[in-house]
Specification:
Blueprint lengths: L3 H9 L17 E5 L6 H17 L3 E5 L6 H9 L6 E6 H10 E2 L5 H4 E10 L1 E6 L7 H11 L4 E4 L5 H12 L5 E4 L3 H9 L6 E4 H9 L3 E6 L26 E8 L4 H15 L2 H9 L9 H22 L3 E2 L2
Parallel strand pairs: 1-2, 1-3, 4-12, 7-8
Antiparallel strand pairs: 3-11, 5-11, 6-9, 6-10
């Protein structure tokens, strides 16, 4: 995926850290589980970090894709893995902070079965309409949606996805009755938006920027605490009087519960070294993520705060996703 000069630069910036007691032996490869197919964004981030972790930890680090059930298959594999840091998962907010509220029934408890190791990256979401709609602002969209009553809708990449929950929250905050239309991923929803089958989408900014820049879709607002660097002319929901819409998604590393403290600390230190590499920061931005280092305690606190926040949204909207 990356050329030799990039890898060389990455590895040169990473310090070799002791793996220490409580970890699998050095000859045992470390797996990074990814709950999505090869070639996707999360897979790309996992492969980016696997190179640096291999050097920092002095062992082979492999990416193992276990797609299906929105990441629950990979999570089940992490739950069953040895508690020696030989297996990690690069998990998204939906796998950790959203899943306990939406799954019916839940196959795992992320706060009992896993331990948060390190934040990797954060991203904003955006509300967008087709440029052909003539809608240019959030107030104009709200007026348009209210005029259509229960026929107004929005698309997302799937039931129980973070865009789905943001859409439900926005619908309630704006006094709308938006119908959620789930798709299998971002691309089909955008295709249907451009085709006029749906009135709006909520997606990660990275999935919409190209179409926005091409004049095909119009991004009306983003969910960040400040304006997105890729969209300086687009206001945030907070600016527009929707403070509850502030936030976004994240991905991070998790290990099985019971993994020794020394093990998780060594991995956290390795990730911090990788994130200090300019080439990694640049590549993460290209993949749609902002690198936002935080301590392990801060990351764990964030996962719990997000679980409380989205649990309230799920309960108020009666949003459940049947697990396989």
């Amino acid at each position: 995926m990356f050329d030799k000069s990039f890898i060389a630069g990455l590895l040169a910036g990473v310090l070799l850290l002791p793996f220490g007691a409580g970890l699998a032996r050095a000859e045992t490869p470390t797996r990074i589980l990814v709950g999505f197919p090869p070639g996707g964004t999360t897979d790309g981030v996992a492969r980016l970090y696997s190179e640096g972790l291999s050097k920092a930890l002095g062992r082979t680090v492999l990416v193992e894709n276990k797609p299906g059930a929105g990441g629950a298959i990979a999570a089940a594999a992490l739950k069953a893995a040895p508690h020696d840091a030989s297996t990690l998962m690069l998990a998204a907010i939906v796998n950790i902070s959203v899943y306990p509220s939406t799954a019916n029934p839940p196959a795992y408890d992320p706060f009992k079965d896993f331990v948060a190791v390190s934040m990797v990256g954060r991203y904003d979401l955006a509300l967008a309409v087709s440029a052909a709609s003539g809608i240019e602002t959030v107030p104009a969209y709200v007026a348009w949606a209210k005029a259509r009553h229960d026929k107004a809708n929005f698309g997302s990449p799937g039931n129980g996805s973070l865009p789905h929950l943001f859409g439900a929250q926005f619908s309630q905050a704006a006094g709308l009755d938006l119908v959620h239309v789930p798709f299998q991923g971002a691309t089909p929803s955008i295709v249907n938006l451009l085709g006029g089958q749906i009135g709006a989408v909520i997606q990660p900014v990275s999935d919409l920027v190209a179409q926005h820049d091409a004049g095909k879709v119009r991004i009306l607002a983003t969910t960040g605490s400040q304006r997105n660097a890729r969209l300086p002319g687009v206001p945030t929901f907070k600016e527009l009087g929707y403070p509850g819409m502030e936030g976004g998604g994240w991905i991070g590393f998790f290990a099985p519960a019971g993994t020794p403290e020394k093990a998780t600390q060594a991995i956290w230190e390795a990730v911090q070294s990788i994130q200090a590499t300019p080439a990694v920061v640049s590549r993460m931005q290209a993949l749609g993520f902002d690198v936002t280092p935080m301590t392990r305690a801060e990351f764990a606190e964030l996962t719990r705060k997000d679980a409380a926040r989205w649990g309230d949204v799920v309960r108020s909207g009666n949003i459940l996703v049947k697990t396989p």
